[in-house]
Amino acid sequence: MLNYDLVVVGGGPAGMAAALKAKEEGVEKIVILERAETLGGILEQCIHTGFGLHYFGEELSGPEYAGRFIELVEKTDIDVFTDTMVLNISDDNVVTAVNNNEGLMQFKAIAVVLAMGCRERPRGALSIAGSRPAGIMTAGTAQKYVNIDGYMPGKKVVILGSGDIGLIMARRMTLEGAEVKVVCELMPYSGGLTRNIVQCLDDFGIPLRLSCTVVATHGKERLEGVTIAQVDDKLQAIPGTEEYIECDTLLLSVGLIPENELSKDVGVELDRVTSGPVVDEYRETLHPGIFACGNVLQVHDLVDYVTEESQIAGKGAADYIFGKKKGGTFINTKGINGVRYIVPQRVNIEGEENLKLYFRVGQVYKGAKVVVECDGKILSSKKKVKLAPGEMENVVITTEMLKDMNKDSEIVVRVEE
Amino acid sequence: MKKNLICVACPLGCPIDVEIENGEVVSVTGNTCKRGDAYARTEITNPMRSLTTSVKIEGGVHPVVPVKSASPVPKGKMFDCMEEINKAVVKAPVKIGDVIIENICGLGVDIVATNCDPGK
């Protein structure tokens, strides 16, 4: 058994930021366990720019953003095991992992940070008729083939889902010579950033079809085409609107799921909306000493916010390790009227610092107000030019506001049109 | 001539109408701030884009290494740049920031590496 103060599961932007913050706070023995062959996580294959505008004040590509943190980790005495798969976390925070060199390893930790990120919703999660020919894959898989492995997975492409990964891949495949025929989006709006719609689709004349989905795939050995159809307001395909499109590749960009198998096994309670752990403002789960940050906690649109969140978790873990994390009185946060969820789900009303509640809305709002209230009293109300499901928002809770709350209080955030 | 644009200066995404006569912008409407006006004028007269792609590498851990244009290139030149980048082969090791192609297509912009590859 190897003894560590802190074990970080996952060496992407979340894991690295949490480990570095804990180190900065004085934690001595820290190890990062990473499944891939290098640190960096998904950023390694996100070679487009747009990362770091908030955190570094400059526009970096994914590998450059990750590179800055990898360099910082290498300068410290934080131990790193790559090509290492974590199999289990026990109730008393023993992390079991395996790799080719060391075989089975057990790490006894005072605190654990979960930073496993998320994975893409696969084809199996959609009910599309058809057999299983080659050429159907998630946008992220295609991204790895093109950007890391250096080959093109197809020539004529249809993309289902207009999330940012789908849009980015439409441009990437086009630049490399493929013909992207159409991007279909089930919802009446795109989940991607406007900037990506303009620069990844409009620039290349790629059509975006809203309220449209793929209802069937054709081909046995290799994909030969797909049938697309318009959908009604219940998201059901409208008979008679079907259209056949010839293609050899179908990319899916239909949502991300936090990868919480390890969390579930150790009994960490998950939020039904985020599919990530329920945490308090220090990002500690309901399991003492286990913290969570990054896309395993909630799917982010900007890595800059992942870094910010992970530093909170790193600080929380350090305080826990040093026995500085006090108890307190925790109350719940709740999103209603268009606010789909809030992270953190629990807030310490005896907390001594201002804190931010992060949330997402369920639809597009223009000129609506974000209202925070507690026990029937309005704490803040702020008008927003635009609110969209694709963009994470936040509200600030000050220590001043916390003063008037008691153990039965509940902080509610809602949208008011 | 009229052209419709969606502003990308901020997440609001204002629909902008630009009136163009003899290649000159005569009016910009639909924007709700000054940034929108500036965006529309550059977008009509001289649209620029950052280019990111990958280039073949010999002796590397991976077969390709990611690269970007050190500064934006004219939108209409993206495919010319791609053609030149796709002909290039670099040798490992490569570090972030290494110049892979100098002055691509005579545009005065370098193509630089955005990841390192220490080589096998």
How would you describe this structure to a colleague?
The complex is a heterodimer of chains A (about 425) and B (about 120). Chain A is of the alpha/beta class and about 425 residues long. Chain A has three domains: about 1-120 and about 255-325, FAD/NAD(P)-binding domain; about 120-255, 3-Layer(bba) Sandwich (FAD/NAD(P)-binding domain), CATH 3.50.50.60; about 325-415, Immunoglobulin-like. In chain A, about 20% of the residues lie in helices and about 35% in strands. Chain A has eight helices and 29 strands. In chain A, the strands form eight sheets. In chain A, strands 1, 2, 5, 6, 7, 8 and 19 form a seven-stranded mixed β-sheet that branches. In chain A, strand 12, helix 5 and strand 13 form a beta-alpha-beta unit. Chain A is globular, with a radius of gyration of 22 Å. Chain B has about 120 residues and is of the alpha+beta class. Chain B has two domains: about 1-45; about 50-115, CPE0013-like (CPE0013-like fold), CATH 3.10.530. Chain B is about 20% helix and about 35% strand. Chain B has a five-stranded mixed β-sheet. The relative contact order of chain B is 0.16. Classes of the chains: A alpha/beta (about 425), B alpha+beta (about 120). The interface of A and B includes residues 47, 63, 64, 176 and 195 of A.
- SSE class of chain A: alpha/beta
What is the average of the pLDDT values of chain B? 92
Order of helices and strands of chain B: EEEHEEEEHEEE
Radius of gyration of chain A: 22 Å
From the 3D structure, determine the CATH topology of the largest domain in chain B: CPE0013-like fold
CATH topology of the largest domain in chain A: FAD/NAD(P)-binding domain
Name given to the CATH homologous superfamily of the largest domain in chain A: FAD/NAD(P)-binding domain
Whole-angstrom Rg of chain B: 19 Å
Number of domains of chain B: 2
Contiguous helical run count of chain B: 2
- How much strand content do the residues of chain A show? 25-35%
What is the CATH class name of the largest domain in chain B?
Answer: Alpha Beta
How many β-strand stretches of chain B?
10
Write down the CATH class of the largest domain in chain A. Answer: Alpha Beta
